[in-house]
Amino acid sequence: MTLTVQPHRESVGLKPGRLYLGGEWVAASDTWTHRHPATGEVIGEFASATKSDVDTAVAAARTAFGTWSTARAGTRVTLLHRYAELLREHAEELRALQALDNSVPVSFTSGIYAMSVAAAADVFDHHAGWVDKLGGQTLPPYQGGDHLAMTFREPIGVVAAILPWNAPFLLFAQKVAPALAAGCTVVVKPSEYATFTVLRMVELLAEAGLPAGVVNVVTGPGDPVGEALITHAGVDKVSFTGSRAVGKRIVEASAGTLKRVSLELGGKSPALVFADAPNVGLAAATVVGAVTLGLSGQACVANTRALVHRDVYDEFLAAAQGVASAVTYGDPFDPGVLACPLVNERQLDRVLGYIERGRGEGRLVMGGQRLGGDLAAGFFVGPTIFADVENSATIAQEEIFGPVLAVIPFEDEDEAVAIANDTEYGLGASVFTAGAQRAFRVSRRLRAGTIGINGFQIEPHLPFGGFNQSGLGREGGASSIEAFTELKSVLMPLTEEMM
Ligand code: NAD
């Protein structure tokens, strides 16, 4: 039977996508046609913004900055909490929209915390708590005498929030919530592969009572829409999550006006499985799950390199294949479907290209093919495992962004840490061991932004970001407040005399 998602499209009542500029929903002269990655069906059309639309969005954000940055703290707190509640109320609808956008199964967006609407709502609640705590310091005068030295935290200004397609709930929240809490105004640019989800999230912001112009949305392809934002003189900060290549382009483009830049980029994260792992089968399930379930390895922190001690290597490989063979594909609305296709044809070709290369670099023990039959119209690739890979291999060094695991044996802890750190990236890592001392010792030695011990989790109040070329700066918790504010020093004499 041919796979179709059309009935879901009807039941969600999908509207044509428009731009949101200064509180108005506006059609654009050009449009983008979105095709579903699992079926190839046309899902809908949304606006592709012009440079002039981007100018309007930035101008609206600039105007709104005056009032939003000075708004009563209580107004911002109430709004952020009200929005968190609205997100929770609309969770099912948002999961459905995401499944229509990027085909991430509802089983995953309802079952995995970091991918859930609940996590995005928690991020808004968390940042509501920061609004009235954006304090500075009062310091004793350095040179003695009678004056006050103080610091203030000020909102950075107009923020361009540029999003990838793979986790729109959390990543929209990680940028918009702290920006609003800090008093910034925002122009959001969703990925062209997750636009309908983000448009609805913005519509709910308006329903929550957000004043016109505080958040604006420009949709369409990275070039020209994202380009117009990152080169715009009216944008004070670019907060970007996406690929390393675009991240580098943003750093170049920011030089013109020395924009502030935060970059959350890709990874080639290692999982280190020691011989004393509490349960090698469970470790294999966790590692393979991260590379296959839900996003089919299209996750920045997916542990795509499994470094496994030789004593448990065969056991790990056997368990990994068992878990991978249970992954199911198909209609993302079917609760029994566990993984998505690759997001587009370009990504399909890229992943198949890496797999071809991998055949000469390691021992293919599973997968390696595009899936056919009922799934032939989609961009599905099954779980793919290469064993006996050298860490210098292309498939162990480059971010493939697909369901491809490179398994690499090691002899001892020093070798495992050296292999783990031998990468241009540094986003995440996980350590599987029963020894608490080893767990902490190895965690300290790993050059990565987030480490999971016997698993991997992301929490809204913790900083998240990368070492090396996995990014610049951190998002999450207090780090987000720093990322969306500038520090100002103020000095004042306490007498009538000049300082
Ligand atoms: P991408 O870089 O292709 O696109 C990301 C966004 O940038 C999209 O909105 C796109 O339209 C826009 N864009 C493209 N070219 C642009 C340009 N010249 N100027 C401005 N904007 C431009 O990434 P993607 O395929 O959407 O997402 C996958 C990548 O994102 C992977 O590398 C993944 O590791 C990374 N990612 C990182 C994190 C993290 O938190 N570190 C989270 C999710 C995804």
UniProtKB/TrEMBL annotation:
It comes from the Bacteria. Residues 25-490 form the Aldehyde dehydrogenase domain. GO terms for molecular function: oxidoreductase activity, acting on the aldehyde or oxo group of donors, NAD or NADP as acceptor. The keyword Iron does not apply. InterPro entries: Ald_DH/histidinol_DH, Ald_DH_C, Ald_DH_CS_CYS, Ald_DH_CS_GLU, Ald_DH_N, Aldehyde_DH_dom. The active site is at residue 264. Transmembrane segments: none annotated. Keywords: Oxidoreductase. The keyword Oxidoreductase applies. Belongs to the aldehyde dehydrogenase family. This is Aldehyde dehydrogenase.
